[in-house]
Records
---
Amino acid sequence: LRWTICLVYLDDIIIYAAGVDEHLQRVRQVLTALQVAGLKIKLVKCQFGAQEVKALGHVISGEGIRPDPEKMWAVENFPSPTTLV
């Protein structure tokens, strides 16, 4: 299923689809595969039907991938060094 209906990184799974019906079908496929493998998910950590998700410091949506503004703010506002070694 990887790369055909979902992206997997460590314990994160992102299921992507063009529409709601396709998304529901793919969610069922992934949940079935997890069940067959004896794996469980924590429902409180899941998002279903989201238009965009944050992962690995990026915001992923149907429009593409962009840096997470919260992460960019941290980099842009990192204090300048005050000493030289």
---
Amino acid sequence: MFLIEKRKKAGLTQTEVASKLKRYQSFVASVETGQRKLDVVQLIAFAEAIGFDPRDAIKRMMATKDD
């Protein structure tokens, strides 16, 4: 949900993010729904495409890892 929140806050569609990443919209959708996991390099690419600090995503994951 973090990526969806950040993408929507940036006013971007999945298609726009996919274009920035040079990927298909379905790739972005599968990441946002949790069907596909990201490695660190991909997380940084998403952060650059959407415009957020990737450390925020890592902090959020660490805060919820026990849930």
